[in-house]
Amino acid sequence: MHRLPLSLLLFVLCSRAKAGEIIGGRESRPHSRPYMAYLEIITPQGYLAKCGGFLVRRNFVLTAAHCAGRAIVAILGVHDTRQKEDTWQQLKVMKQFPHPKYKHKRMQHDIMLLKLKEKANLTLAVGTIPLAPQFNTIPPGRTCRAAGWGRTSVSGSDPHTLQEVKLRLMEPQACRHFAQFDHSLQLCVGNSRRKKSVFKGDSGGPLLCAGVAEGIVSYGRPNAQPPAVFTRISHYRPWINKILEEN
Ligand SMILES: *[C@@H]1O[C@H](CO)[C@@H](O)[C@H](O)[C@H]1NC(C)=O
User: Fold this and answer.
1) pTM reported for the whole predicted model
2) Distance, CA 116 to ligand 1 centroid (Å)?
């Protein structure tokens, strides 16, 4: 089964006019999700890419490990990525902490903390979100939401405004076609009978359930057919807490 990491190379987007965003969702009310971070990344190969992320401390953003790069800038307070607004706070990433067990080939442990050079100022448009606690077992069947600036269709263009979509948490069997899917480390998200999913460019963004971040967009199928795989945040709370305490 082919897997597609849901980061988005802007180079690919420009040259082939094929990108992806939240599919089947709608535009978020501007600044209604103040924890969302828009990440501009210089990849290890020197390309420009983008990911989503979310603010968990004034100086820490949580995202996916496959969004790591040579350099990253986090922009907070963004609704429309094309129009710089007074709400924007652009912060350089001082240090990237990809999970030590992350390997691109397996796409497990796809989680990374980014330490920002300065603390963000908390405003109406910029704020933090709580993370799922360690022993949180969120049951399949729950409806959650994902948000991101990724593509809105397989062949369509990029949206420039933040989009969000309601997605159902699935039983692990619904992701059994992904050979490396591991229920203890990951969440299987999105009903296969609905045309709703996350897509290219959404990587690193949150899965939000009742005001808590439960997952991180990791990968899906190249044709965007749900479900997609998210990193299960609760499993990584000890690692997250350790990095936050020590840095
Ligand atoms: C936070 O506010 C202070 C005071 O207005 C300003 O100097 C600083 O640059 C702001 N920080 C960010 C990240 O925008």
Assistant:
1) 0.90
2) 13
